[in-house]
Amino acid sequence: MGCCGSKPLTKSDLVSKPETILGKPLEDIKKHYSFGDELGRGQVGTITYLCKENSTGKSYACKSISKKKLSSQEEKEAVKTEIQIMDHVSGQPNIVQIKASYEDKNSIHIVMELCGGGELFDKIDALVQSHSYYSEKDAAGIFRSIVNAVKICHSLDVVHCDLKPENFLFSSEDDNANAMLKAIDFGCSVYIKKGETFEKIVGSKYYVAPEVLEGRYGKEIDIWSAGVILYILLSGVPPFQTDAEIKGGRPDFDSQPWPLISETAKHLIRKMLIKNPKERISAADVLEHPWMTSEAPDKPLDCVVLSRMKKFRAMNKFKKLALKVIAERLSEEEIKGLKTMFENMDTDNSGSITYEELKTGLNRHGSRLSETEAKQLIEAADVDGNGTIDYIEFIAATMQRHKLERDEILHRAFQDLDKDNSGYITKEELEIAMKERGMGDEANAKEIISEIDKNYDGKIDYEEFCTMLRN
Predict the structure, then answer these.
(1) Does domain 307-470 correspond to CATH entry 3.40.50.2300?
(2) Which residues is 110 bridged to in the sheet?
(3) Digit-coded pLDDT (tens) for 240-250
(4) Which residues are catalytic?
C-alpha cells in the first residue's frame, strides 16, 4: 500500500521513461514518412533527406540530427530553439515552412517544405540561359527576397546568425514568380530582445560581421552578412578574406567589375558594411533604398562576375576533396608529429576532434588563433560535414602546404582519383570520390569539371589538377 492513501506502484511505474530532448514522446517517423535520396549534409551530424508523406504522397525535406552528436546541453537546447524559431517564423514569405518534428532513440527529425529549385547561384545560371545575360536588376530582384527574409526575422525578434548563399533555396524550378527564394537552416538562430546582445561565436567564413569577432553583437549581424552576399552577387567574390580584413579593411570598389557597377549599388553596400553596427542600415531601409526600388540598371554585368562566382564555389569543393585524398596517402614519415598532435587533442579517443577539443588543444600548444578562427578551421577541415574533424581531415587541414609542390605527392593523389588509369579524372570518377567522402553529388562534380577543365574536353588532366591545387 502506498503512503498517504496513494495507489500501489506497478511494475510499469518503475520502468524509467527515456529522456527526450524535445520533451515529447519518442515516435517512429517512418510510420508517417518514407525516406528517399540524401539531399545534403550540414554541421553537427545532420543529413537532409527527401521524404514522402505516407498519407498524402506529398514530398518534403527532412533534416535528421544525430543525437550522439548532441553531447552538451547547449547543443540540445540549440536544436529545440531551432524548431521553436521555425514554428515562429513559419507561414511567412521567403522563409522555409516547417511541417512537423519527431524524435526517436537515435535522431531528431525536422520535416519541412521541399525547396527543389536549387541554390541562389543556380538561379543566376538559369537567368543567363533564359535571357542571355545577368544584370544589376536581376541581382536586385534576388536580393529583395533575401532582405525580406531578414526583415521578417527581425520583426519577429529572431536573428538568423548564419546568412550565406548556401542557406537560400528556391521553392521550385519554375522560372516565374512561383519560384520563391527561401531562407533555410535556422540552426544558429536566436531570439533577441530590444537592446540585448550576444557573445557566442556564430556565422560562416567570409560572411561573419566584425562585432561577432569582438564578442558582442545584435541583430545587425544579419545586415552585414546580407551585404557580403550582395557584394558577391555583383562581383563574384567576397569583399573580405580574413578576420583582420573584416575588422579593419574596406571593400574593394576599384578593381573589375566595380568601375562598371552603378554608384547607387556601391552606396547600398557601404551602408550595409559599416563597421559600427549602430550606424548600419536596417532591413526595412534596405528594401526602400533607390537601388532596390528603381535604380538598378538592366544592362549586362561584366562576364567576369559569373566566371568568378562559379570558381569561388567550385574551387573550394574540389580543393577540399584533393587535400583529403592527399592526406589519405601520406606516409607516417611525411606526417611525423601531426599524428601525435591529433591523438593529444582527441582526449576521449573517439577518433575525431570536436570544436571544444580543438580549442583546448590549440590553447595547450600556445596557438594564438581566435575563437572564430578555431571555429572556421573546424568548418573548413570538416569535409564530410558531420561537425567534427576525423584523423584524415585533420591531416589534410594541417599538413604543410609545401608538400603540394612535390610532384610525387600530387601524382599519387591524381592516380587515386583516376580510377581507370586513363590519365584523366572524369565527371563519373569525381562523383564517386565525392560520394565516398560525403562531399557532394552529380551536380557538384559537373560544376567542378566545368570550372577546372581549361581545354573543355569534359575531364581534368594532370596539369589542370596541379594548377588548381597550387594556385
Answers:
(1) no
(2) 63, 101
(3) 988 889 998 89
(4) 162
